[in-house]
UniProtKB/TrEMBL annotation:
InterPro entries: Epimerase_deHydtase, NAD(P)-bd_dom_sf. This is NAD-dependent epimerase/dehydratase domain-containing protein. Residues 4-237 form the NAD-dependent epimerase/dehydratase domain. It comes from Candidatus Vogelbacteria bacterium RIFOXYB1_FULL_42_16. Belongs to the NAD(P)-dependent epimerase/dehydratase family.
Length: 300
């Protein structure tokens, strides 16, 4: 049986990935400190280790005998990283180094790293393509980009196969709807269910390439299966962008506008490389993904 580790497997994307890997017959070990994830989201068939990836000596033995590592654990969100740069650097940079080193020492076949489209920052042209220079606008964007660089170095120096997947605004089941850093679709759905106004940061004209977690899960599995390594970077985005105002209108309800904050105005993925090399084809349209979430959450 193929053995894998999913760091951050109690979180939003990690728990969805864990479910799919178990459905495919893998032995899945989840590493999560539950700072952002939830114990109840961990598939009961997974082997759960409540650990922090920044504790290298504690996690190192768990990598022995593991075939593949999916590294999703992070302290996410741009605004959170602006307020807490030290904590997010420890989790996102040091934690990634720990995972790569433990994987190298254990002879893991490949590490699939969850990177972020926030590495691009603001770019003068759309869509965003992997050959563009990174211009992160936040500690989070920089930290996730440093993780990519570490993956490349570990492939070049230590011959550890790595792949980096730059996610674009992932949404879907298990997404976080709590607190000031909630994902926008989750926040809107929670507000709609509570009969509250949908709060938009800024004027709502900013656009995002919303990508279903179901498609992101498939991208991870394809990155594991395909003959790609060397820290190769792939955009994992639907290739369609919508304004935040349009998303609010899709969900429905009265809108309230709040002051703008520091973030890229637009994102749109050129996913040609992922389509051609990984054979990845995003299947879930935003309209259908929101309809699925409305049904799950009982939002009318």
């Amino acid at each position: 049986m193929t053995k894998v580790i999913v760091t951050g497997g109690a979180g939003f994307i990690g728990s969805n990935l864990t479910d799919e890997l178990i459905a495919k017959g893998f032995e899945v070990h989840v590493l999560d400190n539950l700072s952002g994830g939830k114990r109840e989201q961990v598939n009961p068939q997974a082997i759960f280790h409540e650990m922090d990836i920044t504790d290298y000596e504690a996690i190192k033995p768990l990598f022995v005998g593991i075939d593949y590592v999916f590294h999703l654990a992070a302290l996410p969100r741009v605004q959170f990283s602006i307020e807490y740069p030290l904590a997010t650097n420890e989790a996102n940079v040091v934690g990634t180094l720990d995972v790569l080193l433990a994987s190298k020492e254990a002879g893991v076949k490949k590490v699939i790293y969850s990177a972020s489209s926030s590495a691009y920052g603001d770019q003068p042209v759309m869509p965003l393509v992997e050959t563009m220079s990174a211009h992160p606008k936040s500690p989070y964007g920089l930290q996730k980009y440093i993780g990519e660089m570490y993956c490349r170095v570990f492939s070049q120096v230590y011959n550890l196969p790595t792949v980096c997947l730059r996610y674009f605004n992932v949404y879907g089941p298990h997404q976080n709807d709590e607190g000031a850093y909630a994902l926008v679709i989750a926040k809107f759905l929670k507000q709609k269910k509570a009969g509250e106004k949908l709060t938009i940061i800024g004027d709502g004209s900013q656009t995002r390439d919303f990508t279903s977690v179901h498609d992101v899960v498939q991208a991870n599995i394809l990155a594991m299966e395909k003959e790609v390594s060397g820290g190769e970077v792939f955009n994992i985005g639907a290739g369609r962008n919508f304004s935040i105002k349009t998303v609010a209108e899709l969900i429905g309800g009265e809108i309230e506008y709040l002051p703008a904050r520091l973030e890229p105005h637009d994102t749109l993925a050129d996913n040609t490389k992922a389509r051609e090399i990984l054979s990845w084809i995003p299947a879930v349209k935003l309209e259908d993904g929101i309809a699925e979430l409305k049904e799950i959450l009982g939002v009318k």
